[in-house]
Design brief:
The structure holds 2 protein chains of 2 kinds. By secondary structure, chain A is mostly helical. Chain A is built from 15 helices and no strands. The two termini of chain A are about 30 Å apart. Chain B has one domain: ABC transporter involved in vitamin B12 uptake, BtuC, CATH 1.10.3470.10. A two-stranded antiparallel sheet of chain B has the order 1-2. Classes of the chains: A mainly alpha, B mainly alpha.
C-alpha cells in the first residue's frame, strides 16, 4: 500500500483559504457594527435566512447549482492556463441555443432533455470558439476578446429575444421567448430527497440541473486527474515551456480546454430557463460568469474545491438577502464581502506559500 | 445634414470619449510599470460615484473631482498592495477589486443617498462649453502631460524600465516597488478624471457599462502609448456618439449598432498582432533576489 504522508505544510496550504473566509466574516461584522447592527443580530439574520428551516438550507444548495457549473467552467480553462472571462457571454448564448431546442424541437421526453443539454453545451462552446481561435492562432489575449464577446452576446441575445425569437404574450411585458415544450421542462427531484429523509419543500428548485452538475463534476474530475489528456491540461497550466519541451501540443490543449470551458458554461443557465422560468429571457441571472471566476479561484480549480466554493458563495448570497431583510445592512454587502474574501484568500495564500518555502529552506540548510 | 449637427457631433464625441480615454491613460501608466490592471472598471465605478457624492455634499463639482481622484488612488492602492507587496496574481486581484467596487459604490450609495442603485441628481456640474462639459477639454493637456511624463522625464524612464526589465532597474538602484506603486497609483488618479467625465449628473448602478474594459482594449490598440491609447478611445467614443445621435436614422436594429465597437475591438486586436508588444515584464511580479 502506498504510504500517505501528510506533512504539516500541506495542512497549512489546505487551510489558508479558510483563513480568508474567517477574515471576510470579521470584515462583515465590523461593517455591521459601523452600520449600527450588533454582531449577534447579524449572525442571527444570516442563520435565519440560510439554515433555520430545511427549505432555507435546501435553497442554498439549489442556488449553488449554477454557481458550481460556472466555477467548473472557469476552472477547467484555468487548469490549462487560459483565462476565460467570457463564461458570462457563453452561458447567455448556450442557454439560448438550448432553449431553442427546447422550444422548437418536437421530441419525446427521453431524448429531448439530453438534446437540450447537448445543444446548450454546443452553443457555449461555439461562443468560446472565436476567442479561442484568436488566442491560439494569433495570440490575441483572451481576457480582452472574451470581455468583448460578453458585450456582443448581450446585445445579440437582446436583439433576438426582442425580435425574431420574441414570444411575448399578453401576460408578459418582459421580452421573452415562447415557452419551453413540456417534454423538455426540467422536473424536480424534491421527492427523491424526501424519500431519503430530507424534507425539501416544493417551492425549492432541486431539479434535473443538479444531476447535470454532479455528472459534469465527476467527468471533469476523471478527465483532469485520471486521464492522460487531463494531465496534459494541468501540465500546460503549470508551465507552458516545460510542456512544450515534454512534447505536449500546448496550443491544441489550450484550445480544447477553452472549448470545454465554453461547453460547461453553456449549462449554467439551464436551471433558470428550464426549471424556474420555463422560457428564455436575456435577464437570466446576470453576473454568474464573474462569480464563477471567484469560485474557481477559491476552489483552487479542482472540481471538489469548486463544490465547496460554490456552496460558500450560495450561502453568502442567501446571507446577503437575509441581512437585507432582517437588518439595516444593505444587499451590497454581498459584493463587498465577495471581493474582500477573494483578496484575503489570495494574499494569505501567497504569504503561506512564502512561509513554507522559507521554512523548507531552513530545514534543508 | 447641416453644419451645426456635425459640430455638435464633434464636441459630443469628445465628451463621450473622455471616460474611456482617461481610463486608458490609467491603463498605460499601470502596465508601463509592469502591473496589469483589469480593475480599471472597478476604479471607474467607484470614482463615478464619488464625483456625485463630493459634488452634492460640498455643492461644487470641484469637490466631486477631488473625491474622485482620492477614491481612484485609494482603490489603486488596494491593487498595488495586493500585487506589488504580496505579489498576488494581477488578474485575480483585478477581478476581486471589480467585484468589491460594485459593493462599495452600492453600499455608499445606500448610506449617503438612501438608495442602493442610484443617487440623487447632482445639479453642480462643470460649466458647459459648446454644449459639453468644459472638463472634457482637459483631456488634451492631460494626454500631453502623460506623454511628457512617460517619455521626457527621468521618472518616466524609470517607470518604463521597471516595466521592461525590473532586474536591470534594481541593479541600477531604481526602487522597483516604489516605481510600480507610482504607476498603479497614477492609473487610479487617471480613472479619477475618467469618473469626473462620466455623466456626473447622477450615479446609477451599472452606468460604467464596461468602459473600463473598453479602455483596456484601447490601451492595447494604442500599443501602450498614451497618445495611441487616447486616439483609440476617441474611436470608441465617437462610434458610441454616432449610435446615440443617429440611432433612429440607421436602418439596422440598435443592438447591432451597439455591437459595433466591440466587434471593431476584436477585429483590430486580431489584425494588430505582432505589431503590438506589451512591456516585457507586464504581469510578472518582481521578486528581489536573495
Amino acid at each position: 500500500m502506498r504510504k500517505i504522508k501528510i506533512d504539516k505544510y500541506h495542512l497549512y496550504e489546505l487551510f489558508s483559504p479558510l483563513l480568508g473566509v474567517v477574515a471576510a466574516i470579521i470584515v462583515l461584522l465590523l461593517i455591521g457594527i459601523a452600520v449600527g447592527e450588533s454582531p449577534g443580530s447579524i449572525l442571527k439574520a444570516i442563520h435565519r435566512f440560510t439554515m433555520s428551516t430545511s427549505g432555507r438550507l435546501a435553497t442554498v444548495f439549489s442556488v449553488a447549482i449554477p454557481l458550481f457549473l460556472s466555477g467548473l467552467a472557469v476552472s477547467i480553462a484555468f487548469q490549462a492556463g487560459v483565462f476565460n472571462i467570457g463564461v458570462e457571454g457563453q452561458y447567455f448564448i448556450g442557454g439560448l441555443v438550448g432553449a431553442l431546442a427546447g422550444i422548437y424541437l418536437p421530441l419525446p421526453r427521453v431524448i429531448h432533455i439530453p438534446v437540450v443539454v447537448i445543444c446548450a453545451m454546443l452553443g457555449g462552446a461555439l461562443w468560446a470558439a472565436i476567442p479561442a481561435a484568436l488566442k491560439i492562432g494569433k495570440g490575441v489575449h483572451e481576457v480582452i476578446t472574451t470581455i468583448m464577446f460578453n458585450n456582443i452576446a448581450l446585445a445579440l441575445v437582446n436583439y433576438l429575444v426582442n425580435g425574431p425569437l420574441s414570444g411575448r404574450g399578453e401576460e408578459s411585458l418582459e421580452a421573452q421567448t415562447f415557452h419551453i415544450r413540456d417534454t423538455a421542462v426540467f422536473g424536480k427531484l424534491n421527492h427523491w430527497f424526501r424519500a431519503l429523509g430530507w424534507n425539501i419543500p416544493n417551492h425549492v428548485f432541486m431539479d434535473y440541473s443538479l444531476i447535470i452538475a454532479i455528472i459534469m463534476g465527476i467527468l471533469v474530475w476523471i478527465l483532469l486527474f485520471r486521464l492522460r489528456y487531463g494531465f496534459e491540461i494541468r501540465a500546460v497550466g503549470t508551465s507552458i515551456d516545460v510542456s512544450e519541451y515534454a512534447g505536449i501540443r500546448v496550443k491544441r490543449i489550450q484550445l480544447a480546454a477553452f472549448l470545454l470551458s465554453g461547453a460547461l458554461a453553456g449549462l449554467i443557465g439551464l436551471q433558470e430557463i428550464f426549471a424556474i422560468r420555463g422560457f428564455y429571457t436575456y435577464e437570466i441571472a446576470p453576473g454568474l460568469g464573474f462569480d464563477g471566476i471567484a469560485i474557481a479561484l477559491i476552489g483552487r480549480n479542482s472540481p471538489l474545491g469548486v463544490v465547496f466554493a460554490s456552496i460558500l458563495f450560495a450561502f453568502l448570497r442567501q446571507a446577503g438577502y437575509g441581512l437585507q431583510l432582517y437588518t439595516s445592512v444593505p444587499l451590497a454587502i454581498t459584493f463587498v464581502i465577495s471581493g474582500v474574501m477573494i483578496l484575503f484568500i489570495v494574499v494569505i495564500n501567497e504569504v503561506v506559500t512564502r512561509y513554507i518555502r522559507a521554512q523548507r529552506k531552513k530545514e534543508a540548510a | 445634414m447641416d453644419a451645426s449637427i456635425i459640430v455638435d457631433f464633434l464636441f459630443k464625441g469628445l465628451e463621450m470619449s473622455c471616460p474611456i480615454a482617461f481610463a486608458a491613460l490609467g491603463g498605460v501608466f499601470s502596465e508601463k510599470s509592469g502591473v496589469i490592471n483589469i480593475a480599471l472598471e472597478g476604479f471607474l465605478i467607484v470614482t463615478a460615484f464619488c464625483v456625485v457624492w463630493g459634488a452634492t455634499a460640498f455643492h461644487t463639482i470641484w469637490m466631486g473631482l477631488v473625491f474622485a481622484l482620492i477614491a481612484g488612488v485609494v482603490m489603486s492602492l488596494i491593487h498595488a498592495v495586493a500585487t506589488i507587496t504580496f505579489r498576488v496574481n494581477q488578474i485575480v486581484s483585478g477581478v476581486a477589486i471589480n467585484i468589491l467596487a460594485v459593493g462599495v459604490s452600492r453600499f455608499l450609495s445606500e448610506r449617503v443617498f438612501g438608495q442602493e442603485t442610484q443617487t440623487a441628481i447632482n445639479p453642480f456640474l462643470f460649466p458647459t462649453v459648446m454644449g459639453i462639459s468644459s472638463f472634457a477639454f482637459a483631456l488634451i493637456p492631460i494626454t500631453g502631460i502623460a506623454w511628457f511624463v512617460l517619455y521626457k522625464t527621468v521618472f518616466g524612464l524609470r517607470l518604463r524600465t521597471v516595466g521592461e526589465n525590473p532586474e536591470a532597474a534594481d541593479t541600477l538602484g531604481i526602487k522597483v516597488y516604489v516605481m510600480r506603486f507610482a504607476g498603479v497609483m497614477l492609473s487610479g488618479l487617471m480613472v479619477g478624471f475618467a469618473g469626473a467625465t462620466l455623466f456626473p449628473t447622477k450615479w446609477v448602478n451599472g452606468m460604467t457599462g464596461g468602459r473600463g474594459f473598453i479602455a483596456l482594449a484601447c490601451m492595447i490598440f494604442g500599443r501602450w502609448h498614451p497618445i495611441g491609447a487616447v486616439l483609440a478611445a476617441l474611436l470608441f467614443g465617437y462610434a458610441d456618439t454616432f449610435r446615440i445621435m443617429f440611432e433612429t436614422q440607421i436602418p439596422i436594429p440598435s443592438q447591432f449598432v451597439m455591437m459595433i465597437p466591440y466587434v471593431l475591438a476584436v477585429v483590430v486586436l486580431a489584425g494588430m498582432v505582432g505589431r503590438a508588444r506589451p512591456p516585457a515584464s507586464d504581469g510578472i511580479p518582481y521578486e528581489p533576489g536573495e
